Every structure is written in C-alpha cells, then in structure tokens.
Amino acid sequence: MNILVLNSGSSSIKYQLFRWPDERPACSGLVERIGSEQATITHKTFTPGASPAELRSTLPLPDHEAGLLEVVRLLTTGPEAVIQAPAEIDLVGHRVVHGGEAFTKATLIDEEVKAEIRRLFGLAPLHNPANYDGIEVAERVFPQVRQVAVFDTAFHQTLPEKAFRYALPTALYTEQRIRRYGFHGTSHQYVAAQAAAYLENPDARLITIHLGNGCSMAAVRGGQSLDTSMGFSPLAGLVMGTRSGDLDPSVLLHLLGPLGYSGAQVNNLLNKESGMLGLAGSNDMRDISAALAAGSPDAALAYDLYAYRIRQYIGAYAAVLNGLDAIIFTAGVGENDALVRSKVCQDMDFFGLALDETQNQQRQPGLRDLSAPGARARVLVVPTNEELEIARQCAELVE
Ligand code: AMP
User: What would you measure as the largest C-alpha separation in the chain, in angstroms?
Assistant: First the structure.
C-alpha cells in the first residue's frame, strides 16, 4: 500500500509518501510560497542503502492545486519516480489542526466530515481553512482515493472535564465551545507510544514535552492524554518561539484599555512578537544559544524562563499522574538543545529525575535514554514523526 501524507498550510504543502506495511518513506518534500511566481519545491527520494536524492526547483505556482499537481509529477516521472500513476496511491492522510469535540480519532473524509471541519473555521481561523483547501484539492487530484483526516486535537479528547473546562460561565462552553482543546496531539501520541514500548510498560506515567516552534506538554497514562498545556488555542502554556504562553488575562485588558492596543495588535503581539523573540530577539534557539555563549544577559534570562515554565508543568503533571515514570523531550529544541534539557532536569530529584550529562551532550539518532544510573524516573529523547503517526492512523482505519 502507498500512503501519501499531506500537511497543507496557507501557502505551503508538506508531503511524504510511505510504503505500507513496512512504514518506509519513499519520498518527502515541501512546496513553499504557493501563490507566487517564485514558488519552491524541495523533493527528496529515499532508496534503501543509498543516500537520499534531493531535487530543488523554483517555478510559478498560482494555487494549491498547481502545487499538488507538481508533486504528482515529481512522484510519477523521471529516474526518481516512486509510483507510475496517481492511482497507485491507496490513501491520502491529511493533517487537520482543529477537530473540536467532534473528532476523537482519525476519520475517513466524507461530506459530513468536511462540513464539520468548515464549522470549526471560527475556532482555528489560521489553520483549518488551509487544511480544508488541501482536502478539496486532493479530492480533485486523486478522485478515486480514500482521504483521511488526522486531527491535532483528537488525542486530547480524553481530558477529563475538570482539565478541559475553564472557570467561566457555563454557557460560554455549551454555546460558544470555549474550553481547552490542546494541540500537537499527533506528536504527543507518537512519542508517548514509543516511550511506553521502550519502557515495556503500557501504563507508564509519562510527561511528553514537545519543544519546536510551538511548544506544549501533556500528561499521558495508558496511552491517554490526561492534561495538556495548550488550551482553547495554541497560545497557552509554555514559552514558545514567538508566542507568550501563559499570561494573566488582565495583561490583555491593560493592553486593550489604557495602552490603546487594537485587538489585531494584541493578537500579533502575543502570537508573533513574544516568547523567545520578545525576550531575546530571536525565535531560533540556535541564535539564542550563540548569544548566551557571547554573554548576553537577555539570552540567559530567556533560557531560564523557558526552562522554568517547563519545570512548573512537570510539577503540575506529576501531581495529575500521581507519580512519574519518564519525561520525554521531542521536536526541534527538545531533540537538539542539551542546555534546555539540562536546565529542566536540574534539581529535580524530588521527582526522581536525574540526567546523565555526558549522554545529554551526545548527538545520536533515534530514541535516547539520558537518565543517570539508578534514577527513579527516566529522561528520554524521542524524535517525533508526525507524518509516520498520521500514516499509521490512516492504515489502522482501513485494516
Ligand atoms: P520544529 O518546530 O520541531 O521544526 O522546531 C523548530 C525549532 O527547533 C527551531 O526554531 C529552533 O529553535 C529549534 N532547533 C532546531 N535545530 C536546533 C538545534 N540544533 N539546536 C537547538 N535548537 C534547534
């Protein structure tokens, strides 16, 4: 079976083709700047035993349909072709950011599912419309192929009501659907499953820490999410690249009132100008790490604040789980930044966490156990693979 995974953004398409059941990626790529004369495609093909072949091109792509047709051309033509014809694709899996309360797992897409994704536009105005357009384009390009939606929120639908409700008047939940949804679910689910398998304990009490451009944590037990740090939107919780994370709501009122900000300005401030960018002038941890090495006090504070917020959530989630078997670092920062891991794990013996600093400094692919010998709880790095998790969920659905 061939499974094509698509992640459609407002001007981009990220894709990966998997051979099933051996879970092998045949190719992957990224189309960017769709809608411009200078759109770019980076396309990689993987042949077992050989290094990946990469193809880059710049071309005009007026819309997503043109972009996906170009992807099909790359998949089917030339010496690097991985299939002969679009009909050889058996399933298309779409990443959809918001599934509201309607979707608790991967779902075969039909008109009813599409209508529900449209109803959720209001809750995820930046993401769901682009994801939806990606579905419609794929339906036109692959008319015979079953399409599956995999939602970022679905994994967190197991949160108990006390964890997902806000202490606001009930009608705001029942009528306006204001509650915690949580995001990055596909990543939390994937790394939690990998960790539970490594620990040989399906009931392990895990705290998953996804640190990428966006950052979130989840308390997971028995494969179920019990709490998570993102909320009604992906703005809540941890300090992120450009997002503030948790904030006293009165700060917003102060900005909107006495300080004279507009709603759009506040939105922009909290989502695009805050987080590490606001504290230290860059949203990329590699820059902040270099600034720290050069003696920047802003970079030092930004690192401390970033790690401190994660530590606070570890404390909170150890209480939610009534114990702790492992914490799991994942995504760009979690997998690569040894200093963040080191700061998070410092003086955490109360929780049974102790980091082996030599292991922490080493770079190796795959799952890594960084725990010091004898530690009660493990510190793991598990590289996330949202595309593979989407493909797995698609395959499970039709098996
Ligand atoms: P992601 O959203 O998972 O792709 O993560 C992207 C972020 O990971 C970037 O903005 C960087 O801050 C961070 N990152 C990527 N590579 C490294 C690295 N080698 N060291 C530290 N941070 C990194």
Answer: 64
